[in-house]
Amino acid sequence: MPDGDFELGLVLGPLRRGPADPTFRIFQDGSAVRATRTPEGPGTLRVRAGDGGVRGEAWGPGADWLLERLPEMLGASDDPDAFVPRHRLVAAAQRRRPGLRLCRTGLVMESLIPSVLEQKVTTIEANRSWRHLVRKYGEPAPGPYGDSPLGRSGSRPDDRRDSRMHVMPDFRTWAMIPSWEWHKAGVDAKRSDTIARAVRVARRLEEATTMEPELAAARLQLIPGIGPWTSAEVLQRSNGAPDAVTVGDLHLPGIIGYALAGRPDTDDAGMLELLEPYAGQRHRAVRLILLTGRTPPRRAPRMPVGRIAHL
Question: Which residues cross the membrane (predicted)?
Answer without folding.
Answer: none
